[in-house]
Each structure stands twice: as C-alpha cells, then as structure tokens.
Amino acid sequence: MQELSVRHLLGIKDITAEDIQLIFETADNFKDVLNRPIKKVPSLRDITIANVFFENSTRTRLSFELAEKRLSADVINFSSSSSSVKKGETLLDTVNNILAMKVDMIVMRHSSPGAPHFLSRHIDANIVNAGDGTHEHPTQALLDSFSIREKLGDVAGKKVVIIGDILHSRVALSNIFALQKLGAEVMVCGPVTLLPKYIKELGVKVEFDVRKALDWCDVANVLRIQLERQQMKYFPSLREYTLYYGIDKKMLDSLDKQIVLMHPGPINRGVELSSDAADSHHSIILNQVENGVAIRMAVLYLLASRK
Amino acid sequence: MQKRLIVNHQLLEIMVMRLCHQLIENHGDFSDSVIIGLQPRGRQVAQRIQSTLKAILGTTVPTGYLDTTFHRDDFRRRETPLAANATHIDFLIEGKKVILVDDVLYTGRSVRAAMDAMISFGRPANVELLVLIDRLYSRHLPIEPTYVGRRVNSLQSQRVLVEWQGSDTQEDNIWLVTKNEE
User: How far apart are CA A128 and CA A300, in angstroms?
Assistant: First the structure.
C-alpha cells in the first residue's frame, strides 16, 4: 500500500525515485488494461479534470485526454486561443473560475516556467504539469524512462544521451532528473550555444561531437530544435545543424552496437532525424506515444488517491 | 492480538477436496468452464483448486487471476491507497462458465468489483462464486457464494487470515484474528 509523496506533479525534481517506481508499477497495470478488448476502467468516475493548455500541443493533450477518458473521469478542455485570456484575465482568475465549476484536477501547460508551481500555492486541486516553458515536462520524462525500462529491462546503469536543443528543452531537464534518480548515466550533446552554461552542475557529461556521443550511449533521445523559443540565432542555419548534429540510418548502422533511438515529438524529419532513421528498427518513438497514455493514467490515478 | 484456529491443514485439505467434487458435480469435464482467482488472496485458492481438480480429473482447467483495484467503489474513500496487482487472464471468457474464487467473502464489494472487471474479458454464460470462508451477516450487497468452505460468525473488528504453506508458514491454516483493545 504505497502512495506518492506529493499532491501535485509539478516536476521530476520534486519527486523521489520511489515515486517514479510506483508510477511505473501502476503504469504496467494500466498498460495491461489498454491492451484489453475493453480499454476502460471506472476508477475516476466521480472526478472532473480540466485540461488547461495555454500553449499548443497535440500529443500531450490527446494523450492526457485519452488517459482521463480511459479512467472514466469527466473531462473539460480549455485552450487559451479561444478563451477570455485574450481579454486580459489573469492565470489565477482563469483557473479559479474553472475550479468554481467543481473541478478536482488541473492538467496545465503554460509558456512561463513555474506557472504550475505558482498555481499549486494558491489552489486546492491536484495539478499536473504538462509542460511549463523551458522548465519541466514531467510526464514526458516518465514515459521516456518507462519506455527505456520496457525496451532494456532497467534504467539503472544505462547510458543515455540527450541530443539537440538542450537550452530550450523542458523534456531535457525533466529527463535528466528522472534518469539520474533511476540510476542512469546521462550525457548531453549539441552545439555549444544550445547547451546551458551550467549544465555540468547537474552532474551530466557534455559532448559536442554527436558521433562520439552515439558511440558511448545505449539510448539516444533526440530533441527538436525549438525555433519558436529562440529569440536569436544560435547556429548559422538549420542545414548546418543537420550536417553536424542530424542523425541518419547510415550513422546508426555504422555503430558497432544496437542503440535505442527516442524522440519526444514532434519530429522535424530531415533536421534532427532523417526519415529512414526515425522509421528504423532502432526507433521506439511510437512505443513512447503508446506508453504515454499508460503513464498519464498512472499519474492521474495516484494523484487522485491523494485527497 | 489473539489468533484462534478455525480450520487446520487437514480440515482445509478435506474442504478443498469437497469443493472440487461439488464443482465436478456442476461442471462435468470443465470443457466450458474457467477459474478466475481474485487478486491478491484468491490467487492461491484458485491454484489449489486447479491442482486438486487436475489430480482428480487429469485435466487442467484454464485459470486466470483478476485484479479489481481499478474497479473498486472505495477509491478516495479509504485511509490507505490501494495497490494494484497484475491481471493475468490469457483466455476469453465469452460464453464460458466462470468460477470466481476468493479466500474470504465479507462485504461482497470486491466480488461486485470483480464482476465489473470481468466483463472486460467477454460476456460469460454464467458466473459462480467459490469462497473458503463466508463471514455471515456482514454483507453490504446482495451477493451470496455458490460454493462455501465454511461459514463463520465474526465481529467487525475481527479478521479472517488464510495462511498457505510457504516461506513464512509451515502448514495451511485459517485463523480468526482479534485485535486486543488495550
């Protein structure tokens, strides 16, 4: 009989390795449920969840919504583009108005780092961070580690390299925390301008040569170049980035071992990953998406049991 | 804590044997029947029933384990959260005669949850319930067992504990456990 040590899932930084294991064990059971003819359980039937997205999303939002529906929760959706946020309402007012309609949990994506942490200090409902700016994206990191565990048996002792735009990536930060808590070795790789200045303080290896990084690793998690977050030029051109940091199948086949290729999506085919690499047998990208629903079911279920 | 032995290992063996013969009376060669043990504690009862039936009939009756955690009605109403167990049912129960197996029948709520959970695997022809111990006068729902090992009168503060021979105990026993007030 275990429970999470937190009431909200704001970031991987705030949870323990035991929490992560509990989420994984629960997700195993939900994955089993998802492979049945009837993929629905009635666990959250008296719970209402609001998906509050102040930033665009396809995968995460669909994945959360599906997870909520599979758990029989009532779901309401909110996106900032079609709401009163445009009329000048504050974040706290918007959320308090949603909560006034008797909502039990909030799944929120916001472009400002720390937005869910701010909310958690002011409201009662359980909050799940679905990405806050360039800060954290905990459920993505959980499903990434869960997918590694599923593919390789365990996360502990594995060598994982995160390649690409580390500076603007919430996926990178959450992944570093999750992988380290689970006992993996982490390396980041990318152009020097796209690596945070103090990234070494987190205890990760830094490599600028993608070929060396691939030689070292068991798992490569490739990130997208987040042009929408880049206020200035970090590298001369996408073409040049692809030349130095793009990964193709030829490169993967020339390694003397089998590595696992991951990507949190959306992929810019032909930039960070070539099409033949993304669709190769190395890739577990679609398994990640499948596992996303089970992980999110586990998170929602475990948080809901914390009143 | 006081423990009173209500069924010792010899009696338990006779009880399981009797339950198996009652099953055979209703199910014949078990060609359309399956056994489903309720996780976590019904699992060992189901295994015992399956192996005893194999000893008598020579056939292996398909046996699965069903976890009802996500179907329970006391989620968010309990002090301690529920931990889920694995469900392992590698057959369809569509059109089958299902024998649900658990160790103790108390309020009937887990059996209700189990019937809900079971529907995910198909529509059974009929469903029966087998329990080792039926705690009388404690039902919250109109659920009654088809096969009963033994009926016991017990207080709400008491607990029925079924021990199977294994790592921590020498022999199979069923105890009635009373917590001391002081």
Answer: 8
Query: Across the interface, which of B71, B76, B87 has its CB nearest the CB of A32?
Result: B87
**What residues contact residue A230 under an 8 Å CB cut-off, 6+ apart?**
A168
- B121/A305 Cβ within 8 A: no
A204 is a domain residue: yes
Query: How many domains does chain A divide into?
Result: 2
List pLDDT tens digits, range A237-293: 889 999 999 999 999 999 999 999 999 989 999 999 999 999 999 999 999 999 999
CATH topology of domain B12-72+83-155: Rossmann fold (3.40.50)
Q: Is residue A4 part of a domain?
A: no
pLDDT digits (tens, 9 = 90+) for B75-128: 767 666 667 788 888 888 899 999 999 999 999 999 999 998 888 888 999 999
**CA A221 and chain centroid, separation:** 12
What does the alpha-carbon distance between residue A104 and residue A295 come to, in Å, rounded to a whole number? Answer: 19
Our CA angle for A249, A252, A256, nearest 5°, is 145
Sequence-separated (6 or more) residues with CB below 8 Å from residue A304: A43, A44, A47, A104, A105, A126, B75, B76
Tell me which residues of chain A have a pLDDT lower than 50.
Answer: 1
A151 in the same domain as A104: no
**Which phi-psi region, left, alpha or beta, contains residue A133 (left: φ > 0; alpha: ψ -120 to 50)?**
left
Closest residue in A to B91 (Cα–Cα): A36
pTM over 0.90: no
In a domain, residue A5? The reply is no
Q: Respond yes or no on whether the N-terminal peptide bond of residue B124 is cis (omega within 30° of 0).
A: no
Go through B62-91 and write b for each residue having 16 or more CB atoms within 10 A of its CB, e for each that does not. Answer: ebbbbbbbbbbeebeeeeebbebbebebee
Q: Which residues of A touch B120 (CB under 8 A)?
A: 33, 36-38
Distance in Å, alpha carbon of A175 to nearest chain B alpha carbon: 26
Where along chain B do its domains lie?
12-72+83-155
d(Cα B148, Cα A284) in Å, to the nearest integer?
50
